[in-house]
Design a protein that fits this description.
The complex is a heterodimer.
Chain A lengths: L3 E4 L2 E4 L5 E7 L5 E7 L6 E7 L2 E4 L7 E4 L5 E6 L8 E8 L8 E2 L3 E5 L1
Parallel strand pairs in A: 2-11
Antiparallel strand pairs in A: 1-3, 3-8, 4-5, 4-9, 5-6, 7-8, 9-10, 9-11
Chain B lengths: L3 E4 L2 E5 L4 E7 L5 E7 L5 E6 L3 E5 L2 E6 L4 E6 L8 E8 L6 E3 L3 E6 L1
Classes of the chains: A mainly beta, B mainly beta.
Chain lengths: 113, 109
């Protein structure tokens, strides 16, 4: 089945140690998104790629960066994780104009120790 | 940005009861989806419903785009319906999804 896959499901990283989360899709959607969700809160958009065009939200910390080497893959890099970055990170895809809406991956739960 | 408000914030039901969740939004949208977030954190798409009415088993949804609201109906609730229900909207040409704060549903046996 076509889907959005996030790896790993759980990630533990040390304070200040760079970490990369990955997302892949088999839907061939041209837009990919990264959301951050903290406990008991709604998901918050960090940034998205429309094809190769990168779009950063104004309030996304500089500590967060993203790469999209091809249509299928997108990475979230956290350069120096702090305790406040512990959260669920959700990847989503969409194909505007097709009427299929957004599809989310199962998320990566990040713990910072 | 667009404002998305969901009500009620919390809901406790006895198994078998019916419920209605509401989503109000502050601007015209070209996409509206209802999601159920399961205990493991995954967002499960329930409905893609920018307008009109759809039904899927015990769940149905109605969006009245001109009045800027959407309703999610859950009938004969089951304990497996527990979790958080999110409404999310996308404005025309913005390619961004904005989430409401969610309704936390607890269905008791």
């Amino acid at each position: 089945d076509a889907m959005v896959i996030q790896n790993p499901r759980y990630q533990v990283t040390q304070f200040g140690k760079p970490v990369t989360l990955s997302c892949s899709q088999t839907l061939n959607h041209n837009v990919m998104y990264w959301y951050q969700q903290k406990s008991s809160q709604a998901p918050k958009l960090l940034f998205h790629y429309y094809d190769k065009d990168f779009n950063n939200e104004a309030d996304t910390p500089d500590n967060f960066q993203s790469r999209r080497p091809n249509t299928s893959f997108c990475f979230l890099d956290i350069r120096s994780p702090g305790l406040g970055d512990a959260a669920m990170y959700l990847c989503a895809t969409s194909s505007p104009g097709t009427g299929y809406g957004y599809t989310f991956g199962s998320g990566t739960r990040l713990t910072v120790v | 940005g667009i404002q998305v408000e969901q009500s009620p914030p919390d809901l406790i039901l006895q198994e078998g009861a019916n419920s209605t969740l509401r989503c109000n939004f502050s601007d015209s949208v070209n996409n509206l989806q209802w999601f159920h977030q399961n205990p493991w954190g995954q967002l499960i798409n329930l409905f893609y419903i920018p307008s009109g009415t759809k039904q899927n088993g015990r769940l149905s949804a109605t969006t009245v785009a001109t009045e800027r609201y959407s309703l999610l109906y859950i009938s004969s609730s089951q304990t497996t319906d527990s979790g958080v229900y999110f409404c999310a909207v996308e404005r025309y040409n913005f390619n961004k999804f904005y989430f409401g704060s969610g309704t936390k549903l607890n269905v008791k046996p």
